[in-house]
From TrEMBL:
Provenance organism: Drosophila melanogaster
Family per similarity comment: Belongs to the alpha-ketoglutarate dehydrogenase family.
Stored Pfam families: 2-oxogl_dehyd_N, E1_dh, OxoGdeHyase_C, Transket_pyr
Location of this chain's protein in the cell: Mitochondrion matrix
Protein name: 2-oxoglutarate dehydrogenase, mitochondrial
NCBIfam families reported for this sequence: 2oxo_dh_E1, PRK09404.1, PRK12270.1
Name of the gene: Ogdh1
């Protein structure tokens, strides 16, 4: 099912617009049908000459004019408008309001019932029928509303015969039209009037629900919210705008239109993904921002695709036009990075909102081509900004997400992001979604791009009201935007504005749309643009003169010309001008190569360890599960012995950072307990629902906040969200953990498009940590590998370049690379690498393979001495046993990474080769520790060098490390591969085969 029909099907169907008349009178006479159909046609009449009533009596003519005026004051001549506004008109008895809201049902004469007597059953039935009609309009009015400026969509949805069948049951005829009906409390169409004639009820409902706005909201399961919406659309006069307001809309529309026209003139062969056909989006965004600012919002974070982006930067954010025009000049960049095309860049601006006279910050988040990928990123950034401002209800910071119609319904990440909208640790307290619905996606029309009636149906899952509106009716659009902003401020929930427009050009300006949509574009070619239509309307009603319209347009063109001239004087572009998340002050006064120490005082470790192993203090009644009491006791015993396992090492890192004022946020599926039941940061009272204790939130009275949250079962949106969160403040450790590392590939666009390349494209840094459980432990193909080879393949360090050796070798490498990939084998090293994320004078994403069985491995423990003052992260852990102590005896050095180390040492012990085989762990795989590998190789001058890995040969680290080993060894020695053969799958599903393969690898590696 889909809503769209092409112009072709329209051409075959002369009576494209069905309306209430056809629903109501299915069982009535054709004469009545004709009459009411004619009355309904008044929606489209504009001039007295064209209107169908002039041949009636003067009284009925005036009456019809009055009806038309009630529906749309602009549809009648201005003299009539003035006349009706002056209240001089006394409507005939059947239109005259009865006393306001005071009369009981029995007070009406309903054509049969005597006033004062109890109503008969027909009267009651008819009233119920009217109530049902009102409700039907509220539920289904949007189906037939005039939303499409091109009128190529049949207004009624295909297959919606249920609508007709409901109306077919009500057989009101012409004789009923003047009957007075009491209005139920579920409608506001009466204003101050308690009852209205049926004709007036239908006219008003038609006008509210089937005109240029289609409100889809009756699925919301809150009466309060439904009534709130009804009131804002049904109350008479809500669509009346003052002349000042109209002029403002016109001025904004002039700028939006003028901007695209200027670019088209100056850069006719450049792609800019113009907004032509939906220019109203710019005044719409401005209206949302104005109303929201009025209601207390100080910061708006926006995410949007290509379409209209430059216009938004220019006319919503007011980014200097010359900076935008400079992007067209193809200049070299003055700063580092590889940059991005102009319609992907972000911006951040702080300015005075001239309408509200309040300061406002506006950010448009940079995004890749991948449509909708930016949605969760914006939400994470918004959430973080709310958090740092203490804005717990989202009153000061809000997000706006702009979508294309095809992408909004086609991209799954929209759904995933929607589902974050009401989760306690992910909500941004209401997002306003704006769909620039041009009824096409590249060359595909909606009949072939979605199975739902509207492109916005995805929002129904979170009970978001959806306001469809014809983009050619600026006042209707402004009203909808105002309601959307008020909705968000009132209920702090998502809502959607569906701006139904068209696309005047091809997908981009050099594309030919007639190849694929000939009929649609024939219509478009003949269609006047929105600015001209609105200007004509305002001129006709006397709000502005034609000269004023021209002069506003000319003035804006002058502004563009001046900026154009200025842009010509520029010699370079500056990527920094396009930064969406500036970290003011973070880099100031910092030595760019100085890393703060990551070891902490032993007493700090002991304090954190004791807290982490204790139940809530002074809460004897808090009942903890017996199994967890054992876990706590085991932790306490480790603290007493001054050793840490994986969970304790992690808690030491988090706790010590929190002590230093660094906010820590860990998010992902089941992270509170940990997939492998090792973490247990949240203790649950066994008898009281939702009573929990999280010791890391209670380490120190003045610590930074700690947040750990089980996420929805999503990787794409949640990883995007945490990436966005990490962009806001560099002084926070933000971690996302995958359930198993392999699931991270459902978030591949976030990894590829944002995390690995964000700094290079958009000068934006992020210290996000990805924790990816990884290891070949016989669990089958799907839970073994985080595909570390993919991350390594995206690392930007040159395999053939050995950087100059110096004391700062390690930090300089980190500075220069795009991200860090590591596989730590000890809790201490895990602890240090987490702390190093904050100790660095810059931010880099950290991709960390994390263990599974090692979480409980008796040897995978670290003494406190390896975490206390003076200790630090070890990029390579040398062999500290007999081999390392007597290197000249060593015949073979086995380099490895991660958990296989423990298997290798066990085999070496069993084979009693501890003096002859050295095992060296490469903990930080990328950037590659060239210097330390060289040092180790020099230590074992005569030994054979091998790289042993448990992953298949075409997977794991081998292809990344091999050329780098050769560079580190200056090609003077070789390093050979020991491990599994190449494979298509990550691991075998057979336990027996797994063990066979592992033994073969261990035997190959540990042999001389
Ligand atoms: C994830 C993704 N897939 C495919 C594309 C290629 N693409 C670019 S624009 C576009 C059409 C988008 O249509 P719509 O969302 O309606 O936006 P419009 O261009 O009409 O404003 C497509 C398919 C993309 N950018 N991102
Ligand atoms: Mg589109």
């Amino acid at each position: 099912m889909h809503r769209a029909h092409t112009a072709f099907s329209l051409a075959l169907s002369p009576m494209a617009h069905k309306n209430f008349a056809t629903w109501l009178l299915k069982s009535s006479s054709s004469q009545q049908m004709a009459k009411v159909t004619a009355a309904a046609a008044v929606r489209t009449y504009n001039s007295a000459a064209a209107e169908p009533f002039a041949n009636g009596s003067t009284a009925s003519y005036v009456e019809e004019m009055y009806n038309a005026w009630l529906r749309d004051p602009t549809s009648v001549h201005t003299s009539w408008d003035a006349y009706f506004r002056s209240n001089s008109y006394v409507s005939p008895p059947n239109l005259a309001p009865v006393q306001a809201n005071t009369l009981p049902l029995t007070a009406f004469n309903f054509g049969g019932a005597v006033a004062g007597a109890a109503p008969d059953s027909k009267t009651i039935d008819d009233h119920l029928a009217v109530q049902a009609i009102i409700r039907s309009y509220q539920i289904r009015g949007h189906n037939i509303a005039h939303l499409d400026p091109l009128e190529i969509n049949t207004p009624e949805l295909p297959g919606n015969s249920s609508t007709k069948s409901i109306y077919a049951n009500f057989s009101f005829g012409e004789q009923d039209m003047d009957r007075q009906f009491k209005l139920p409390s579920t409608t506001f169409i009466g204003g101050d009037e308690a009852s209205l004639p049926l004709k007036e009820i239908l006219n008003r409902l038609e006008n509210v629900y089937c005109n240029k706005i289609g409100v889809e909201f009756m699925f919301i399961n809150s009466l309060e919210q439904c009534n709130w919406i009804r009131k804002r659309f049904e109350t008479p006069g809500v669509l009346n705008f003052s002349p000042e307001e109209k002029r403002l809309i016109l001025a904004r529309l002039t700028r939006a239109t003028g901007f695209e026209a200027f670019l088209a003139k100056k850069y006719s062969s450049e792609k800019r993904f113009g907004l032509e056909g939906c220019e109203i989006m710019i005044p719409a965004l401005k209206e949302i921002i104005d109303v929201s600012t009025e209601l207390g919002v100080e910061s708006v974070i926006m995410g949007m695709p290509h379409r209209g982006r430059l216009n938004t930067l220019a006319n919503v954010c007011r980014k200097p036009l010359n900076q935008i025009f400079t992007q067209f000049a193809g200049l070299e960049a003055a700063d580092d990075g590889s940059g991005d095309v102009k319609y992907h860049l972000g911006t951040y601006i702080e300015r005075l909102n001239r309408v509200t006279n309040k300061n406002i910050r506006l950010a448009v988040v940079a995004n890749p081509s991948h449509l909708e990928a930016v949605d969760p990123v914006v939400q994470g950034k918004t959430r973080a900004e709310q958090f740092y401002r203490g804005d717990q209800e989202g009153k000061k910071v809000m997000s706006i997400l702009i979508h294309g119609d095809a992408a909004f319904c086609g991209q799954g990440v929209v759904y995933e992001t929607m589902h974050l909208s009401d989760l306690p640790d992910y909500t941004t307290h209401g997002t306003i979604h704006v769909v620039a619905n041009n009824q096409i996606g590249f060359t595909t029309d909606p009949r072939f791009s979605r199975s739902s009636p509207y492109c916005t149906d995805v929002a129904r899952v979170v009970n978001a009201p959806i306001f469809h509106v014809n983009a050619d009716d600026p006042e209707a659009v402004m009203h909808v935007c105002k309601v959307a902003a008020e909705w968000r401020a009132t209920f702090h929930k998502d809502c959607v504005i569906d701006l139904v427009g068209y696309r005047r050009n091809g997908h981009n300006e050099i594309d030919e749309p007639m190849f694929t949509q000939p009929l649609m574009y024939q219509k478009i070619r003949k269609h006047k643009n929105c600015l001209d239509l609105y200007a004509d309307k305002l001129i006709a009603e006397g709000t502005v003169t034609a000269e004023e319209v021209k002069s506003v347009a000319a003035k804006y063109e002058n502004i563009c010309e001046e900026a154009f001239a200025l842009a010509k004087t520029e010699t370079h572009v500056k990527y920094k001008d396009w930064l969406d998340s500036p970290w003011s002050g973070f880099f100031e006064g910092k030595d760019p190569l100085k890393v703060a120490p990551t070891g902490v005082k032993e007493e700090t470790l002991i304090h954190i360890g004791n807290r982490f192993s204790s139940p809530p203090p002074n809460a004897a009644e808090f009942v903890i599960h017996k199994g967890l009491l054992r876990v706590l006791a085991a932790r306490k015993a480790m603290v007493d012995e001054k050793v840490a396992d994986w969970a304790l090492g992690e808690a030491m890192a988090f706790g010590s950072l929190l002590k230093e004022g660094i906010h820590v946020r860990l998010s992902g599926q089941d992270v509170e307990r940990g997939t492998f039941s090792h973490r247990h940061h949240v203790l649950h009272h066994q008898l009281v629902d939702k009573a929990t204790y999280n010791s890391l939130q209670h380490m120190y009275p003045d610590q930074a906040p700690y947040s750990v949250s089980n996420s929805s079962l999503s990787e794409y949106a949640v990883l995007g969200f945490e990436h966005g969160y990490s962009m806001t403040n560099p002084n926070a450790l933000v971690l996302w953990e995958a359930q198993f590392g392999d699931f991270s590939n459902t978030a591949q666009s976030i990894i590829d498009q944002f995390i690995s390349s964000g700094q290079s494209k958009w000068v934006r840094q992020s210290g996000l940590v990805m924790l990816l459980p990884h290891g070949m432990e016989g669990m089958g193909p799907e839970h073994s590998s985080c595909r570390v080879e993919r991350f390594l393949q995206m690392s930007s360090d040159d395999p053939d370049y050995f950087p100059p050796e110096s004391d700062e070798f390690g930090v300089r490498q980190l500075h220069d690379i795009n991200w860090i990939v590591a596989n730590c084998s000890t809790p201490a090293n895990y602890y240090h690498i987490l702390r190093r994320q904050i100790a660095l004078p810059f931010r880099k994403p950290l991709i960390l393979c994390t263990p599974k069985s090692l979480l409980r491995h008796p040897e995978a423990k670290s003494p406190f001495s390896e975490m206390s003052e003076g200790s630090e992260f070890q990029r390579i852990i040398p062999d500290n046993g007999p081999a390392g102590q007597n290197p000249s005896n060593v015949k073979k050095v086995v380099f490895c990474s991660g958990r296989v180390y423990y298997d290798l040492t066990k085999t070496r012990r069993e084979k009693q080769l501890e003096g002859e085989i050295a095992i060296v762990r490469v903990e930080q795989i990328s950037p590659f520790p060239f210097d330390l590998v060289k040092e180790q190789a020099n230590l074992y001058k005569n030994a054979e060098l091998v790289w042993a890995q448990e992953e298949h040969k075409n997977q794991g680290s081998w292809t990344y490390v091999q050329p780098r080993f050769l560079t580190a060894l200056n090609h003077s020695r070789d390093v050979s591969y020991v491990g599994r053969a190449c494979g298509a799958s990550t691991a075998t599903g057979s336990k027996a085969q797994h063990i066979r393969e592992l033994n073969a690898l261990l035997n190959d590696a540990i042999s001389t």
